[in-house]
């Protein structure tokens, strides 16, 4: 399928709590579903304060486990995205695409594959060889560098990707990231042996997204 040059607005929310970012996502999703006016496809970029989030498979995370993680100084959220538990925090570039897949291709599997390709392309721009595996996310060897967990209802997407830039990786020691036993996590900084900040990674993410989804990126600082 040949993709048209859809315009995607870019909104950088800065460092924001997970709860606040969730509200912004929900607002954009509602606007798409209401279709009361023409709603732009949007990428919400942000960093979060320390937070553990879980997806729709929540049975293995009872209240006792929630309290344990909160006691470490992080928030805890149960969400409607796919996937199991992960961590978000400073030094991690989070991207929430709020897209109408009708503007691209109405396939959730295609969409997830394009997100994976976007992150692999970004890593290549840093000289890092990344790949997918039978497990979710994007990997460098046996270490996950980017988590992917999405929600899609009526072909409107939410949630998204979390790329480790210069994250404090010790937060991951308290969980089994994404429920995958026997594998680790890594970051751009660890792979390159230098500090790679989210501001440095952001332009390459936007370039990679534009190239992969064949779309125009339109910066918008006041689009929340």
Protein model, in words:
The chain has 224 residues and is an alpha/beta fold. The chain has five helices and eleven strands. The strands form two sheets. Strands 1, 2, 6, 7, 8, 9, 10 and 11 form an eight-stranded mixed β-sheet that branches. Strands 4-3-5 form a three-stranded mixed β-sheet, with helices on one face. A hairpin with a 2-residue loop joins strand 8 and strand 9. It starts with 6 loop residues before the first strand and ends in a 5-residue tail after the last strand.
What are its keywords?
single chain; 224 residues; alpha/beta; eight-stranded mixed beta sheet; three-stranded mixed beta sheet; globular
Give a short overview.
The protein has five helices and eleven strands. By secondary structure, the protein is α/β, with parallel strands linked by helices.
**Global morphology:** globular
Distance between the termini: 32 Å
Would you list the SSEs in sequence order as H and E?
EHEEHEEEHEEEEHHE
Give the class from helix and strand content and strand pairing.
Answer: alpha/beta
What topology does this entry show?
Elements: E1 7-16, H1 18-34, E2 41-48, E3 51-54, H2 63-70, E4 75-78, E5 86-88, E6 92-98, H3 108-125, E7 138-140, E8 143-153, E9 156-164, E10 184-185, H4 188-192, H5 198-213, E11 216-219
Helix pairs in contact: 3-5
């Amino acid at each position: 399928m040949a993709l048209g040059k859809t315009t995607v607005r870019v909104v950088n929310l800065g460092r924001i709590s997970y709860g606040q970012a969730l509200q912004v996502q929900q607002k954009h999703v509602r606007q798409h579903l209401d279709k009361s006016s023409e709603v732009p496809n949007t990428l919400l970029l942000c960093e979060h304060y320390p937070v553990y989030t879980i997806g729709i498979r929540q049975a293995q995370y009872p209240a006792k486990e929630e309290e344990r993680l909160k006691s470490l100084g992080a928030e805890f959220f149960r969400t409607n995205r796919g996937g199991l538990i992960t961590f978000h925090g400073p030094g991690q570039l989070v991207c929430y695409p709020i897209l109408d897949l009708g503007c691209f291709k109405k396939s959730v599997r295609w969409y997830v594959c394009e997100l994976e390709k976007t992150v692999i392309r970004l890593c290549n721009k840093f000289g890092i060889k990344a790949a997918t595996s039978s497990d979710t996310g994007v990997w460098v060897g046996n270490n996950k560098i980017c988590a992917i967990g999405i929600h899609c209802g009526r072909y409107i997407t939410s949630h998204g990707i979390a790329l480790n830039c210069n994250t404090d990786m010790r937060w991951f020691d308290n969980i089994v990231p994404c429920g995958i036993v026997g594998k680790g996590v890594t970051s751009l900084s660890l792979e390159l042996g230098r500090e790679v900040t989210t501001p440095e990674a952001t332009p390459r993410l936007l370039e990679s997204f534009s190239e992969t989804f064949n779309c125009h990126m339109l910066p918008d600082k006041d689009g929340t």
